[in-house]
Amino acid sequence: MWRTGCAKGCARGIPMTKTALSVLTVLASIVVIWYLAVAPMNIRVALDQAERTGAAIDPPSAVERRNISVWTLMAQNREHIADGYSLERPRLPTPAQVGQELWRTTGEMVLKGRTWSKRSLIYHGWITLQSTFWGFLLGTTIGIVGAIAIVQSRVIEMSVMPWAIISQAIPIVALAPMIIVLSSQVGIEGRGFPKALISSYLCFFPVLVGMVKGLRSPTAEQLDLLKTYSASGVQRFMKLRVPASLPYLFTSLKIGIAAALVGAIVGELPTGAISGLGARILIGDQFGTPLAIWAALFAAAILAGVLVTVIDRAQQMLLRRMGMRS
Amino acid sequence: MNWLILALVFWLAAWAANVAMVRSKWAETRLVRVVVPVIFGLTLVVAWEALVHAFNVSAAILPPPSAVADTFARSTGMLWEDFTQTVLKGALRGYFIGAAAAFGVAILIDRSPFLTRGLLPIGNFVAALPIVGVAPILVSWFGFDWQSKAAVVVVMVFFPVLVNTVQGLRETDVMLRDLMKTYAAGYFTTLWKLRIPAAMPFIFNGLKVGATLALIGAIVAEYFGSPTRGMGFRISTGVGSLSIDLVWAEIVVAALAGTLFYGVVAWFEKKVTFWHPSQRG
């Protein structure tokens, strides 16, 4: 799913600056399209607001405006288009507004010394990060143990593998409210555990598949060679299969950690959680503050980027130390 | 106590049967390949039933599978209504729109190597994001009915399909493209006869990822507001009113729908990419 900007481009002899330039161009055009879209998206809200302050609008009442397309409205009320770019509760905020909101809830909070306030996204991000981390740990463990069991035993492979595939076709969100009800009934306090469980559900599968592939990646000749060294089964496993599986493991860990974050946020969405990035989205929806939703979404995106980059770096360091190409 | 012993005996018997089947000479036949996982699934259901009875778990916490099956049989009408609302109207329509849009954009983007290079890392990044969080925004844009659910599904399906299609279109090697040139094939002929078929394994990867995401999107969007039907609506109200057996019946529907959806896409993949090494094994 994830590749650093250079991995593929560099391999084909394209300098990194050229890739970076392309990425920046695409990003810039997205921002331009976004800014252009703000005007038609917000024109109705802007006109409603202008009407309340007593400005002359054509047509004058909101009911009449309902059946007129946004383009006509924009053409008839040119002087109010600009209002759409500075609304307090826009349907579509501008990138600058989202950026300001992000700064207000992160950097500014830190400067004020209120990093862990309930209104700071750093606090909420930390809550989500914890669930992600535990879910990632649990999911990775299940994935690795499952993969070892599958590689070792044909019965387990034939019994479990189809269900592992089916498990991913089952929409986990349908189960999320159930998991939360169940664990609170059983007497597990707080939302940390059910969230971690949901996130591990999404996370284990890529790790399982990647590890099975990796543990099976040594060729027959390599296995034969170890046999001529009279290596025992355990030694063959530890000295050949495990090291050979590491590149596969890290590739799936990158997918897994992104999936774990999705799981943690999904675990917060339908359940009335009060802290965490998913809860910020939920609360923003209930209180009609779209800026809070957008800021939480971007915070989640940044968090995902950081997590994947950390694992990518770890992969490069470890594989280089092991003498493999990364 | 009897229930526990029953579960244990059943488990051991089923496991022994599976071991015997896998070790037998028919291990590679299609029948065994189907029967072994089915038996394993059955043991899980029996264990669930037995544990619920053995520990007297209240039906408000975890109903036994028999109760879920009973509720399922009694409320097929309602379940079907929810299925139409969420899967047929929300998820499937969104899936087709999203996949078609992604395919179209991929073909357009592919004409410019510059844009392709820029788009791939961004697309890969966005495909890994918790996009499902846009659900409340889209529900407030498109209203409570299926349109907003379809919109969430469109956004979720778009990026995996886009990234995979763009990647797939780059897969043909220079020799093959040169060959098409010697046949005097133009851009569209080359695209249609060589590059799109070659991209198919990648496109289906994206479509399969999208198939699992589509249902998630449609259900989550219903948690943020829906008409008084739909699977997400029924699950969230069911949890609130402690009719847990109904929630489990909906989960069964979701599981069946998800598996069926994925299975159909995988079936098409087999038919379309029969030539690919991964399908011949």
From TrEMBL, chain B:
Which positions fall inside the ABC transmembrane type-1 domain?
96-273
Which residue ranges run through the membrane? Answer: 32-52, 92-109, 121-144, 151-169, 202-225, 246-268
Q: Which InterPro entries match?
A: MetI-like, MetI-like_sf
Record localization: Cell membrane
Main location (coarse class): membrane
Keywords linked to the UniProt accession: Cell membrane, Membrane, Transmembrane, Transmembrane helix, Transport
Stated membrane topology is:
Multi-pass membrane protein
Pfam families reported for this sequence:
BPD_transp_1
Under what name is this protein listed? Answer: ABC transporter permease
